[in-house]
Design goal:
This protein is α/β, with parallel strands linked by helices and 264 residues long. The chain folds into 2 domains: 9-110, Spore Coat Polysaccharide Biosynthesis Protein SpsA, Chain A (Alpha-Beta Complex); 114-232, Spore Coat Polysaccharide Biosynthesis Protein SpsA, Chain A (Alpha-Beta Complex), CATH 3.90.550.10. Helix content is 28%, strand content 23%. It contains 9 helices and 11 strands. The chain has helices at 37-47, 60-68, 83-94, 115-120, 142-146, 192-199, 205-210, 214-219, 239-248, and strands at 12-17, 31-32, 35-36, 52-57, 72-75, 102-106, 132-138, 152-156, 163-170, 182-191, 224-228. It has a 5-stranded mixed beta barrel. A two-stranded antiparallel sheet has the order 2-3. The chain is globular, with a radius of gyration of 18 Å.
């Protein structure tokens, strides 16, 4: 069985993905320079050299796209309500004995995230008291701080420190007053016991109000620590975001060949 606390020894990345996106339908399969977005995210995860990378899919089309490039994918119930629940369900299939002590929930719409940023999410778990780790980047301008689409992390962070305890997450501009503000990055590293507990909790009052799942963990007394990174990966929620990503990612030296035509 996996240890309950201490630095990660055998972490796994699980990437939840589903086609039923409201603002950008079939988002995981959106083309970026000849490959589906979910494949770009999988490649970024593989570059981080974790013990294992698995895509937790709600749809067979995503499984096919991942397996076509040699990735590992598992089909989960499309009715599962959230990405975190999908990650948990996938683990029951791919790691039922709990050999992976930490699971990183990497959203399938972060195709620009770097390996260094992904590795940084494990750093807070060096403290055995931390249940869940996540990431944040400094906010550079007032418009971003006031944007309700940008989730802010209120972190108890000592001067010159790069890891601090999360006290709250909000779509509002928190904390008030002078000082830095932080843009939350939706990547989480759960200890296995913490994930098992989290998925069994009922949604919290503030979670529903803010529409932020991580507030459920804080309300239940789970400790979340944040590693501050310099990179802010581009998330894809809209066609405009997708264009930004296409413009920011360097095309391959040789075009990715299209899939072969169906043979009768």
């Amino acid at each position: 069985m996996a240890p309950k606390s201490g630095p990660p020894t055998n972490p796994i990345i699980v990437i939840p993905a589903r086609l039923a996106s409201q603002r950008l339908p079939s988002k995981p399969l959106a083309d970026i320079h000849g490959e589906p977005m979910i494949v770009h995210v999988w490649r970024r995860a593989m570059a981080a050299d974790f013990a294992r990378v698995v895509v937790a899919c709600a749809d067979a089309e995503i499984v096919e796209a991942v397996e076509k490039v040699g990735g590992e994918a598992v089909l989960t119930d499309p009715k599962i309500p959230s990405g975190t629940d999908r990650v948990h369900a996938a683990l029951a299939t791919v790691d039922p004995k709990g050999s992976h002590d930490v699971v990183v929930n990497l959203q399938g719409d972060l195709p620009t995230i770097s390996a260094a940023t992904l590795k940084a999410v494990l750093l807070p778990l060096a403290d055995g008291k931390v249940d869940i780790a996540t990431l944040a980047a400094p906010i550079a301008n007032r418009e971003e701080r006031d944007d309700p689409h940008v989730v802010k992390a209120a972190i108890e962070l000592a001067a010159d420190a790069r890891i601090g305890r999360a006290l709250y997450f909000s779509r509002a501009a928190v904390p008030s007053g002078d000082g830095p503000a932080y843009h939350h990055i939706g990547v989480y590293a759960f200890r296995r016991a913490a994930l098992d507990r989290f998925v069994g909790l009922q949604p919290g009052v503030l979670e529903v109000r803010e529409r932020l799942e991580q507030l459920r963990a804080l309300a239940a007394g789970q400790r979340i620590d944040v590693a501050v990174v310099d990179e802010l990966p581009v998330g894809v929620d809209t066609p405009t975001d997708l264009k930004r990503v296409r413009d920011s990612i360097e095309p391959p030296a040789e075009p990715v060949p299209p899939p072969p035509a169906d043979q009768d």
